[in-house]
Amino acid sequence: MRTQKKYVNPDEKQIKKRISKNKAARIVFFIATFFGLAVLAVLIIRIVTQGAGYLNLDLLTNFASRNPENSGIKAALLGTLWVMSVTIPVALILGIGTAIYLEEYAPNNKFTQFIELNISNLAGVPSIVFGLLGLTLFVRYLGMGRSVLAGGLTMALMILPVIVVSSKEAIRSIPQDQYEAGYAMGATKWQIIRTVVLPAATPGILTGAILSLSRAIGETAPLLMIGAMTFIAYVPESIFSSFTVLPIQIFSWASRPQAEFQAVAAAGSVVLLIILIAMNSIAIGIRNKFSKRN
């Protein structure tokens, strides 16, 4: 008996193939997301359980000590806030100002393209290089010494390229018809930038700023290069005082052989993580507020 060959619609076959690829991609992306979240959860659980015994008020109010039971992060915590109080305004003002100039005012020629290319390349330079730059420029050439000001400016230089690039992309995404509507109403270029471009680009600008500041608050190498202290028992009184920061203090404790200091380092890591989450939450809240307004 002769069997009849089943006819397969080529379009249907292609659709099934695409559905299979889509399912495979979905599984791969799910595994990647699950793996990342699982590693993060294990890391957080590990440092919380390890440092739980030292998570108390004494950790926040005591200075560093050779005795792990009496060790605290008061100097490092306030030093971090001092450094970030210099880094945040300098990096945001210079970064957003540079992005506005390059996108709105600078002529489109080879020199401008050369500058933009170098800014993009600087975003990938290792942080230790910015530490060497800060040591040479701020500490030695400008005579700032191992101060909060030198540390804050060094960290601002490190995150500046990322803020410039992200701000440029946010400004560039504004539709051209919004510019034309502003000009049609008789507004000047600066009025359009101030009232139309910047409010619309704020969510994108803040996204880049959040990522940059998160990197700055956790970096250790640049501040070690400019000579930030690893052990001090006083609080910075001005931007010209010597200082230490949380990552350096945690690094110092973690490098000691005693198990008690490892636990204190874990407790300090939890505090650093809480500060980071608080900063990001505030910035995300501001970003969402501007997104709803637009």
UniProtKB/TrEMBL annotation:
Transmembrane segments: 27-55, 75-102, 122-142, 148-166, 223-251, 263-286
Protein origin, superkingdom: Bacteria
Residue span(s) of domain ABC transmembrane type-1: 77-283
Major subcellular site: membrane
GO cellular component: plasma membrane
Keyword Cell membrane: yes
NCBIfam families associated with the record: 3a0107s02c (TIGR00974)
Protein name: Phosphate transport system permease protein PstA
Organism: Carnobacterium alterfunditum
